[in-house]
């Protein structure tokens, strides 16, 4: 972490929790994180629960995020959700390009770029996910893969665009597996991403962009990961489904 960047801890609930379960979770979380201002706290429930969670977090220090967003304003895109529809229900952040979307739903850097730009054009802040697969890491391609994803996903971004964006580095082999990248492994890739941002947007801007780590972040490894100079927060899956665990990660950041 770096004092110039406010850490951001986001919980990706994926396809877990009904609305009733989500409200119970967020009510428990509210009590655990009350008064914390040194870290941004975001929860990303499944789309159908957004209105219920938005109502439950009213007046708290928890913000709402969605798990995806479409690039068009409206249209014949069955199953997709437009930016304004998310904003209507209090959404401020939106995850784009999560590895599960890339792996199981065919999302590409070009599509991620369109989704991120549409989010920004509508006042939503994208959390742009990048990360290599295990075979890519073992083949020594981590740097090339991540750099390609960053360049592709951020193509055509202005300085204002990147300043409103969060990048999440999530090595695919660490997601939901219990295998975390070591703090040094994670820091290495975060530093690479920041060097790329420096090349694209200049050092001043790159120094302000937050880069989250994701992949089996838990209360017992959060502090060490967040202690790395270029890790500015966490995107948390499994551990975000338990209020006490997620709150412990928030506290490690704050
Ligand atoms: P995990 O998921 O914390 O369960 O590994 C992280 C993510 O997919 O964002």
Structural key phrases:
single chain; 254 residues; alpha/beta; TIM Barrel; eight-stranded parallel β-barrel; 43% helix; globular; binds 2-phosphoglycolic acid
The radius of gyration over CA amounts to 17 Å
The description of the largest β-sheet is: 8 strands, parallel, barrel
Bound molecules: 2-phosphoglycolic acid
Quickly name the level 1 CATH class.
Answer: Alpha Beta
Distance between the termini: 10 Å
Strand line-up of the largest beta sheet:
1-2-3-4-5-6-7-8
Instruction: Please report the total strand number as a whole number.
Output: 8
Number of helices: 12
Structural class: alpha/beta
**In total, how many domains does the architecture comprise?**
1
| CATH topological fold name | TIM Barrel
Helix content: 40-55%
- Note the run of SSEs as H and E: EHEHEHEHHEHHHEHHEHEH
CATH architecture: Alpha-Beta Barrel
- Uncertain segments: none
How much of the polypeptide forms β-strand, as a percent range? Answer: 15-25%
- Oligomeric category: single chain
CATH superfamily: Aldolase class I
Could you characterize what this model shows?
With 254 residues, the protein is of the alpha/beta class. The protein has a single domain (8-253), classed as Alpha-Beta Barrel (TIM Barrel). The protein is built from twelve helices and eight strands. It has helices at 19-33, 50-56, 83-87, 99-104, 109-121, 134-138, 142-153, 159-163, 183-201, 203-206, 219-226, 243-253, and strands at residues 8-12, 40-44, 62-66, 91-96, 125-130, 166-169, 210-214, 233-236. Strands 1-2-3-4-5-6-7-8 form an eight-stranded parallel beta barrel, surrounded by six helices. Strand 2, helix 2 and strand 3 form a beta-alpha-beta unit. It is globular, with a radius of gyration of 17 Å. The N and C termini lie close together (10 Å). The protein binds 2-phosphoglycolic acid. 2-phosphoglycolic acid is lined by residues 12, 170, 175-176, 214-217, 235-239.
């Amino acid at each position: 972490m770096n004092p110039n960047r406010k850490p951001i801890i986001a919980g990706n609930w994926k396809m877990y929790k009904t609305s009733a379960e989500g409200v119970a979770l967020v009510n428990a979380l509210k009590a655990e994180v009350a008064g914390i201002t040194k870290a941004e706290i975001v929860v990303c429930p499944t789309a159908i629960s957004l209105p219920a969670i938005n109502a439950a977090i009213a007046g708290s220090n928890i913000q709402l995020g969605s798990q995806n967003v479409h690039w068009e304003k409206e249209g014949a895109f069955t199953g997709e959700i437009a930016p304004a529809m998310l904003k209507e229900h209090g959404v401020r952040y939106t995850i784009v390009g999560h590895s599960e979307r890339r792996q199981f739903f065919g999302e590409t850097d070009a599509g991620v770029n369109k989704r991120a730009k549409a989010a920004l054009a509508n006042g939503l802040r994208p959390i742009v996910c990048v990360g290599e697969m295990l075979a890519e890491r073992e083949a020594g391609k981590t740097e090339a893969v991540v750099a390609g994803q960053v360049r592709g996903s951020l193509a055509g971004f202005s300085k204002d665009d990147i300043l409103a964006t969060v990048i999440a580095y999530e090595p695919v082999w660490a997601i939901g597996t219990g295998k975390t990248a070591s703090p040094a492994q994670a820091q290495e890739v975060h530093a690479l991403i920041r060097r790329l941002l420096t090349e694209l947007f200049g050092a001043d801007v790159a120094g302000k962009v937050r880069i989250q780590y994701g992949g089996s972040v838990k209360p017992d490894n959060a502090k060490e990961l967040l202690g790395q100079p270029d890790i500015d927060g966490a995107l948390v899956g499994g551990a975000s489904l338990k209020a006490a665990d997620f709150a412990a990660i928030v506290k490690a950041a704050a």
